[in-house]
Design a protein that fits this description.
The chain is α/β, with parallel strands linked by helices. The chain folds into five domains: 78 residues, lambda repressor-like DNA-binding domains (434 Repressor (Amino-terminal Domain), Orthogonal Bundle), CATH 1.10.260; 208 residues, Rossmann fold; 83 residues, no CATH class; 90 residues, no CATH class; 242 residues, no CATH class. A hairpin with a 3-residue loop joins strand 8 and strand 9. The protein starts with a helix and ends in an 18-residue tail after the last helix. Keywords: Membrane, Transmembrane, Transmembrane helix. InterPro entries: Cro/C1-type_HTH (IPR001387), Lambda_DNA-bd_dom_sf (IPR010982), P-loop_NTPase (IPR027417). This is NACHT domain-containing protein.
Length: 793
């Protein structure tokens, strides 16, 4: 059977007078792919690849069907048109290749992780309570879709009418499979159910996924800046953010995330095209058109239509538009979402009078306004939260035209009261969490408003815990980081020197020694703050970026580790940092000592230079091997690790704790022993050097504790989280002291949702509302009370 397909392909190529190189170039596949298919070495051609070859050959319909039939007989029934590497053939996507099996295993692990994540998220959002709200769609105007011949992948000269793509929520996978190009755009106004549809698409597709099929992964495309990152690079970066284990080296040395994307194992489900920043939608659409990746894209209609008007439609993509909920949908759903009424009519609910009015007086102003608002799943679920799930609220008040002057005021009323309803006191206990904290709604509104405003300023829907400090001014971030690093060194050195001096009575009656040690501590703190603050400015603050979370952990015994080529580079970085820091610190320290001892200017420079050389060598001997040891003991995280924000935070905390416990004694021992070893040879070069053993121990301990602690605060994501989210922002009243507990509680209350390793607001409309009200002149000010902390019971 294999030679039947290869013989047919070779015969068709010869009939067109093409070489293998010409066919490969026109089809967009590798020459080795064409050669392998013709010789039978590649035993499993993708149907999508066969379509590309048929297009390049310009086959007539009968010849096209014959070639496809040969491919199907060869591949068997398990293959699908949208299998991995269908759009661009590569060695990684070919069964039997060296790269296929390892990537297939990683893709299966990724599929399991994605399934678990979105099943939990769907349950948390109560999508099935009491049943999913209807989500239906219809075809869009032709100007928003590509030519149907392109969508159907037909050869030149072929004509075909549009496909019938109408359907409902449980049919989305079937509708997608009917599109040969594998590219679908789903349009819908705010709150119409686009995100719910993407989640259902991912879960249903994974449920029926064959082992050779792509893995659908949801990406919030609103955070993509096409002017800074290519589409594939952005996909790989998002994968490694949500699955840190995919930073591990894959086939060819590239990270696993990049290998999965490049070989076509990932089916991008791009949610929120309309959330891309203004001015970037056109280049984003052009970048998507530059690829042939199958994908599913959601957007609000106006933003997508505007981008299309500026450039072109999404190439080879069909498009559908979500429709509004009907009154029958409301009549079925709302009564079942609330408790039964008591009294004469036990089967009735508080919604019955409202629904009856909507049916009987649809043209009245009050009913028309309310009906216009309750046409999207978002507003219906919020109305349920405010009126069905909150005792004492009567939905009949929604028909009061004196209170609500139009649909806009009704929407604002729902959004205003959603936070209040979410934070109403509840007596229930949550599993593994004890009683739910009783948080004042006004305080919660202020903190959520700050977070919403923070995201709006950053231009992203993703609430990343390691970027909570990024909303501050860049100078503030650098200054706070420098201050914390300096304080860490000063406190550490002061504690160590004070303890050692008190134990031997070194400070008794010797104000000169006290002054010397004070200057030593102040110099170390000042220079550390300046050095780390300056480095932080150029590495992160000036670029307006944040320190990314670590994708590795420390493993001392057993387990695979990162390739050893990173060890020499880390060693060189450590040597360079040690020399520069040690020389600067030693030079300043030597000059200050000369000033205190009133030594003349020539000796002043000489001593400063000698101390700089000495400390530069000593710190280089400590930092270089310490950095190399750190690289040697790092190992990638598991592919299925850190599937939520708290999980990623805990993973980074464990990693930093392990690094601190390992690096502190290693760095301190290397500095102290390096000083001891280099004392004699440096004495030959610089003149007599005499350090007591207690001084060497002191230098080692203070360097280990203070140096590593300041490094953690300045250059690790967890350290920055501690500096800004656990200290600075709560201290200034912008966030509560227990930030993680607050975010997790907001997630459990349904105000936030989880999208991989980040939080998002339940809906972009809610984020916009909270950010706008937070910036309004009459908005509530920062919470007062002990540290602005949320009261708990």
């Amino acid at each position: 059977m294999a030679m039947e397909f290869g013989t047919l392909l070779r015969q068709l190529r010869h009939n067109r007078g093409m070489t293998q190189e010409t066919l490969a170039e026109r089809a967009g596949v590798g020459v080795r792919t064409v050669r392998g298919l013709e010789t039978g070495e590649r035993a499993d051609p993708r149907v999508a690849t066969v379509r590309l070859l048929a297009d390049a050959l310009g086959l007539r319909p009968a010849e096209r069907e014959e070639l496809l039939a040969a491919a199907v007989r060869r591949t068997g029934p398990g293959d699908r048109p949208d299998g991995p590497a269908g759009h661009v053939e590569s060695a990684a996507g070919q069964p039997g290749s060296a790269w296929y099996e390892p990537l297939a295993e990683v893709a299966e692990l990724l599929a399991q992780s994605v399934t678990t994540r979105w099943q939990r998220e769907e349950e948390h959002r109560q999508v099935h309570d009491p049943y999913p709200l209807p989500v239906r769609w219809r075809p869009v105007p032709e100007e928003l879709t590509d030519h149907w011949a392109n969508i159907l992948r037909l050869p030149a000269g072929s004509a075909h009418g549009p496909l019938d793509l109408s359907g409902r929520l449980d049919e989305i996978v079937g509708v997608y499979r009917r599109i040969p190009s594998g590219r679908l755009v789903v349009l819908g106004r705010s709150g119409s159910g686009k995100t719910i549809l993407t989640v259902r698409f991912v879960l249903d597709r994974l449920k029926s996924r064959a082992l050779t099929e792509t893995v659908p992964v949801i990406f919030s495309i609103g955070s993509w800046d096409p002017s800074a990152l290519t589409f594939r690079d952005w996909l790989a970066a998002q994968l490694t953010r949500d699955h840190p284990g995919l930073t591990a080296p894959g086939p060819g040395g590239s990270p696993l995330a990049a290998a999965l994307v490049e070989s076509g194992w990932v089916l991008p489900v791009l949610d929120g095209f309309d959330e891309i920043a203004d001015g970037l939608r056109r280049p984003a659409l052009e970048a998507l058109n530059a690829t042939t990746l199958p994908l599913l894209l959601t957007s609000r209609p106006a933003e997508y239509a505007a981008a299309v008007a500026e450039t072109d439609v999404l190439t080879s993509a069909a498009a559908v538009e979500l429709t509004d909920l009907t009154l029958d949908d409301l009549a079925d759903y709302l009564p079942r979402s609330t408790r039964k009424a008591r009294g004469a009519d036990p089967g009735g609910t508080a919604w019955d009078p409202v629904l009856a009015a909507l049916r009987e007086r649809p043209d009245s102003r009050a009913c028309a306004d309310l009906a216009a608002v309750l046409t999207t799943p978002l507003m219906v679920t919020i109305a349920r939260a405010v009126y069905s799930d909150t005792p004492g609220h009567d939905p009949a008040s929604l028909l009061d035209t004196r209170r609500f002057d139009g649909p806009g005021q009704l929407e604002e009323h729902f959004l205003d009261n959603f936070v209040t309803a979410a934070y109403r006191p509840r007596p229930e206990h949550l599993p593994r969490s004890g009683p739910r904290p009783d948080i004042d709604p006004e305080r919660a509104r202020y903190w959520l408003g700050h977070l919403a405003d923070h995201l709006t300023r950053l231009g992203t829907p993703d609430l990343e815990w390691w970027r909570l400090g990024s909303g501050l001014r860049r100078r503030t971030r650098a200054l706070v980081t420098a201050l914390v690093a300096a304080t860490a060194v000063c406190l550490t050195m002061g504690l160590v020197i004070g303890t050692a001096g008190a134990s031997v009575g070194a400070f008794t009656g010797s104000w000169h020694n006290v002054a010397i040690q004070f200057v030593n501590v102040a110099t170390a703190g000042l220079f550390t703050g300046l050095a780390l603050g300056t480095a932080y400015w150029f590495m992160f603050a000036a670029k307006d970026t944040a320190v990314p979370p670590s994708g590795t952990r420390v493993r001392v015994f057993g387990g695979a580790r990162r390739a050893g080529r990173s060890i020499p580079s880390r060693l060189m970085i450590g040597l360079a940092c040690g020399v520069s820091y040690g020389f600067g610190y030693g030079f300043v320290w030597g000059m200050l000592n000369c000033f205190l001892l009133r030594i003349g200017f020539p000796e002043f420079l000489d001593i400063g230079f000698r101390d700089g050389l000495l400390f530069g060598v000593v710190f280089a001997l400590g930092a270089g091997p310490a950095f190399g040891l750190q690289a040697f003991l790092e190992t990638p995280l598991d592919v299925q690790s850190a599937v939520n924000p708290v999980g990623l935070l805990r993973t980074n905390r464990r990693t930093i704790t392990a690094q601190f416990l390992l690096w502190t004694p290693a760095f301190g021992l290397l500095v102290g022993s390096g000083a001891l070893v280099m004392m004699r040879p440096m004495s030959v070069v610089l003149g007599p050097i005499s350090w007591e053993l207690s001084s060497l121990v002191q230098v080692g301990v203070t360097s280990g504790l203070g140096g590593v602690l300041s490094y953690v605060f300045a250059f690790t994501a967890f350290g920055q989280w501690v500096v800004f989210s656990r200290v600075w922002l709560p201290l200034t009243g912008r966030l509560p002291w227990h930030v993680v507990a607050f975010l997790e509680d907001a997630y459990r209350r349904g105000v936030l949702r989880q999208a991989g390793a980040v939080y998002q607001f339940r809906h972009g409309r809610l984020q916009e509302h909270l950010a706008r009200t937070h910036r309004a002149p009459g908005a509530p000010r920062r919470p007062t009370g002990p540290g602005g902390a949320a009261p708990t019971r």
